[in-house]
Structures are given as C-alpha cells and as structure tokens.
Amino acid sequence: MNIIDLHCDVLMKLWESKGELRFADAPELQVNKARLQQGQVKVQCFAIFIEPDLPSDQKFQVALEQIHYFYQEVLGKNPDIVHIKEWSDFDRLNIGQIGAMLTLEGVDAIGNDITKLETLYRLGVRSVGLTWNNANLAADGAGEPRGAGLTLFGKRIVQLNNKHQVLTDVSHLSEKAFWDVMELADYPIASHSNAKKLCNHPRNLTDEQATAMFQKGGLIHVVYNPPFVKTTGKATISDLIKHIDHFCSMGGVKQIGFGSDFDGITSFIVNLEDASKSQNLINELLKHYSEEQVRGFASQNFLDRRPRIGR
Ligand SMILES: [Zn+2]
Asked: How many Å lie between the centroid of ligand 1 and the Cα of residue 287?
C-alpha cells in the first residue's frame, strides 16, 4: 500500500557528507531510493533542518546547500524521483515514480528576512514549521523554557503560508505558539508528533491540541521515534498503533498520517528501523482497521485534505 511520509531528515545527512553518500542506495541512510521502493513509500517529504548552534549568518547558506543536494543528489541522479512543487503534482505520479517534496523545519535560516522565505517557496518548500526545539525570531519551540507564543514576525510568516497555500507545521512548537498558529493558520498540520496522553514528552500533543487540530480540518502524522512513543522499554509497532487508536478515539480517523523522522532519529521501533520496513506498519494496522481506513492513514487522508482540495 502506497505511503506518504511527511518528515525525514536525510538532507542533513547528505549535506554533512558533502555529496559522499548516494541517495540511491547508501546503507547509512534510513531513507534512500531503494528503501523507499521496498517500503512502498510513494511520496517522501525532505526537511531542511539547520543546527541551532550554527552561527546565524551561515544558516541561509546551509539551507541553500541542503536544497542543492535535494536537486543534485535526490532528483538529479534519480530520474524516477519527481519533484512535488504543487499540490496537484500528487495526482500526476505514475507507477514506478516516487514524489519528493521540500519542507522547512524551523525558520532560523531566514533570520528576519521574509524575502528569503519567498525564495524558499520558489525553490519548492510546501510546508513550514516555525521552530525546531529552540526559540527563534518567529516563535518559541517545545524545548524553550520561556514557552512564549508567536512574535509579530512569526504571525507574518503564517499569513504568508496561507497566501501561498503552504502548510504551517506545529510539530516542535511550544504550547502557546501552537495555539497562536491554530488561530491564524489556514493549513495547520503536525508532521511528526504523537499523543502526550500515552507518552508524556514535550514534543507530543495534548488531547486538547489534537482535538483543536481535528476540528480545524488539519492532520496529525504520527512519528516513529521511540522516545515519543513510549516512556520506558523497547517501542513496538503495537505501541505506535496505540497512538493512532487514541487519535481515532478523538474522531481523527480521517485526519491521521505518518511522519517517520527517519535520519533524524537514533533509536528505532522494532521492525520499523528504516523506510524499507514501512509495510510492516501497514500489515499490523490491517489487523485492527479496515483497508479503507489504513489507506487513509497511509496516504488518502493527506491527499483528501491537502490545500486547494480539502480545506
Ligand atoms: Zn523534528
């Protein structure tokens, strides 16, 4: 069954290796083309992620370098990988093709310069998360003790996302910033977050947050990172499915998807260690849910609710 994965960090690894790692099949990558094919991942989102410790004046340069590797290593060397630049591009993928979409994980790279964000849109960025765990000029992240909401600049970014029909990603935001985004965003989404009720981690969403996301018509894509799945012991696929069960019990059955976080995580759910294992999750879900429901989680919920179509 075809899967849409809303989050991975493989661009950071391609950038760190300075072009040494082949996207086609490098075994060091949890997401590479061979593994996407094996796991039937039909569309993979590629996050631009910049280390918060990098000097501020180098961050936009690094964002452009990561985009360079996306164009050169991911797209350029793999003609069967197709760049998704518009929401309708999802409908044009042929059998054997894999879609690739750029996303931005935190706006640190643009500093206070909105034209840099416009440039990133033009290069293909279709989803923007305002922060990683730290604070920046737009908002506070989930790891920032101050816990503030959006700045005026952050609000401007959400409005610009709306205008361009770009998703605003709430994963990694502080709780206050989450609520500010929910007030303003036309296309809110949580690209890689689980339920706090089942695993009390600052990166996960409270029931109130999840309810608000579902009421607003947004999506929550569950993440395969063990610390966000379970507080103790080894995390299994069944443990991850408990988060899906929980979100479904809140009415989210048509608003749940997947956001693996591959290449951004260092521990793994058993039997879900890289993209090639993705169908193990599908097969386990099929024991609990109807085929139509599982198809929803895997891709259809996102397709139905992407901008221009469902919202
Ligand atoms: Zn992340």
From this structure: 29
- pLDDT, one tens digit per residue, over 243-288 is 999 999 999 999 999 999 999 999 999 999 999 999 999 999 999 9
Is residue 309 over pLDDT 90? no
- Give the Å distance between the CA of 79 and the centre of ligand 1: 28
Dump pLDDT digits (tens) for 104-148: 999 999 999 999 999 999 999 999 999 999 999 999 999 999 999
> Would you list the domain boundaries of the chain?
3-305
Architecture of domain 3-305: Alpha-Beta Barrel (3.20)
Q: What distance in angstroms lies between residue 105's CA and the mean position of ligand 1's atoms?
A: 7
The answer on pLDDT for 310 being more than 90 is: no
For the stretch 293-306, pLDDT in tens is: 999 999 999 999 99
**Nearest one of 231, 246, 244 to 297, comparing CA atoms:** 244
Query: Could you tell me which of 2, 5, 1 has the C-alpha nearest to residue 224?
Result: 5
Ligand 1 centroid to residue 172 C-alpha, Å? 7
Query: Six-digit token pair at 142?
Result: 């989930």
Contacts for 67 with CB less than 8 Å, ≥ 6 apart: 11, 48, 102, 120, 123, 124
Confidence band (pLDDT; 50, 70, 90) for 23? very high
